[in-house]
Design goal:
Elements: H1 2-11, E1 13-16, E2 19-22, E3 31-39, H2 43-55, E4 60-63, E5 75-78, E6 83-86, H3 98-104, E7 109-111, E8 118-123, H4 138-154, H5 156-159, H6 180-187, H7 193-200, H8 212-218, H9 221-229, E9 233-235, H10 240-250, E10 254-255, E11 259-266, E12 269-276, E13 279-290, H11 306-312, E14 316-326, E15 334-339, E16 356-362, E17 370-377, H12 383-399, E18 412-418, E19 421-423, H13 428-432, H14 435-440, E20 448-450, H15 460-479
Parallel strand pairs: 3-4, 3-13, 4-10, 8-15, 13-20
Antiparallel strand pairs: 1-2, 5-6, 7-9, 11-12, 12-13, 14-17, 14-18, 14-19, 15-16, 16-17
Length: about 475
């Protein structure tokens, strides 16, 4: 009997990075077998789950660490008025199947109409009014955007919605490898840069040394066309509605508040030990679709090997926070932008030449003194440190006399979260050494496929379009095609 018991026990153990997954330790109802396991329920993960299960007839399990789907969609419910505020994703591009995705869940869309605010530029260091800075005019901004569009449209096929057609290292267009400061001066597009940075979030700490490739990725042809044509849209009601209805449709094929604790990935498929509120599960799938940011921090439990570490180890962490706060010392219908002193008098590329970026914008409803808070830094900050830094910078407005207010201005955060990620920017030497090719060589490696903003462009509509290029390849891999 001993040999028989030994063989059964051995069969139930799966080796994973020095640890063993004992299948016998899981009850049958906590062992889930699917075609595809999806990590991350943000824009790309949710979209992939719906497309795979509903349209491509592929079984899935979606694993999301948060208690809801939606990723960078953040909605605050205002109890005083029974309404909602969107403080995460602000609008969507008419690109790919974005409009259709809202329609399939009966979510109506309307044109994006930003609130009209009185904007005040202040010195990022002191909070005092930024004297002497001359922002670009609306006409200059529009003309610069039109010049920028002609340029990025030339490279659209290699950047949007992803890098499948990216040229070989020796054939990368030289313009894309220029520091953006040189490129912007040569093509006279500086007037568009403040708005590019505001919408995309790129350039914290300075945009001049970033390669033009990454600015074109952050603000490429689709978003530029949308801005020029004023064709961006939003769903009626709430951004979260789409994800709430997707969750309802996916039902038990979603594990919320869940995280992968151990993994084994090889050419035969994948095994995951997942901890959730409902206990621990063993997930067995033919393929893994990873839609979260593939940083080494996030992949700590996925047994990353040398080939994967060579690519993902080059990315650096980024820090960003956002929320809704009651700020009594700032007038409603005002927006405060913290701008580097180096921008004076009209160096538009220098507006973010400080180690942090902070914007405070009035949101309504009237009489509540609520503001959307966006804070990003190029240095590490904890949740509490970020709150304290925001509070100090608001108080700087009072102390410097920018506001008609005296005393302490207590910032009351109604909701506050982080959107930390990784920065994928490489040097021109790394790109010429084949970084993009090495990155995309990981697609399908060890039965793992990837989607999400770090594989192309960061906007939801682009991410969905990129996901549509990944899924056929993933399914062909499963079928051996």
């Amino acid at each position: 009997m001993f040999p028989l018991v030994f063989s059964i026990t051995l069969f139930s153990l799966v080796y994973t990075g020095g640890a063993l997954i004992n299948e016998a330790a899981f009850s049958p109802d906590h062992i889930i077998s699917k075609d595809v396991a999806i990590i991350g329920g943000g824009a790309s993960g949710t979209y992939a789950a719906i497309r795979l299960r509903e349209d491509l007839k592929t079984s899935i399990i979606l694993i999301e660490k948060e208690p809801e789907l939606g990723g960078h969609v953040e909605t605050y419910f205002v109890p005083e008025t029974q309404t909602t505020l969107e403080y995460g994703v602000q609008s969507y591009i008419r690109y790919g199947h974005a409009v259709d995705f809202f329609a399939r869940f009966n979510v109506s869309i309307v044109p994006f109409a930003p609130r009209r605010l009185t904007n005040v530029n202040v010195n990022a260091e002191t909070g005092a009014l930024l004297e002497g800075y001359i922002p670009p005019t609306n006409n200059a901004t529009t003309e610069a955007f039109q010049r920028w569009l002609k340029i990025v449209e030339k490279y659209e096929s290699i950047l949007n919605p992803g890098y499948w057609e990216f040229p070989a290292p020796d054939d990368i267009p030289s313009d894309l490898l220029l520091p953006f400061g040189e490129f912007a001066a040569a093509h006279n597009i500086a007037a568009a840069v403040p708005r590019i940075m505001t919408i995309s979030g790129i350039g914290v700490g300075g945009i001049k040394t970033i390669l033009t490739l990454y600015v074109a990725q952050a603000f490429g042809a689709p978003i530029t066309r949308g801005v020029i044509a004023n064709s961006l849209f939003v769903p009626e009601g709430s951004n979260s509605l789409l994800y709430q209805r997707a969750l309802t449709q996916l039902g038990s094929d979603v594990l919320l508040s869940s995280q992968v604790r151990r993994a084994v990935r090889d050419e035969t498929g994948i095994r995951l030990v997942v901890k959730s509120k409902r206990g621990s599960y063993l997930i067995k799938a033919k393929r893994l679709l990873y839609s979260a940011a593939p940083s080494l921090h996030n992949l700590a439990n996925f047994d990353v090997d040398e080939k994967e570490n060579k690519v993902f180890g080059t990315w650096t962490r980024s820090w960003s926070f956002l929320g809704v706060a009651h700020i009594p010392c700032i007038l409603e219908n005002y927006g405060i932008s913290y701008v580097s002193l180096e921008a004076v008098p009209s160096d538009h590329l220098a507006v973010r030449n400080s180690p942090f970026s902070l914007g405070l914008t009035s949101t309504g409803p009237a009489g509540l003194g609520l503001f959307r808070v966006l804070f990003a830094s190029n240095y590490s900050l904890t949740y509490d440190e970020a709150k304290a830094t925001i509070q100090q910078n608001v108080q700087n407005l009072v102390n410097s006399g920018t506001l008609n207010y005296t005393g302490d201005c207590a910032v009351e955060f109604k909701t506050f979260t982080d959107h930390h990620s990784v920065t994928s920017e490489q040097t021109s030497e790394q790109l010429r050494a084949g970084f993009i090719q090495d990155l995309y060589a990981l697609q399908g490696y060890r039965s793992t496929w990837y989607t999400g903003s770090l594989w192309g462009v960061r906007y939801s509509s682009n991410v969905w379009a990129y996901t549509d290029t990944v899924l056929p390849r993933l399914l062909a891999d499963i079928s051996g095609g």
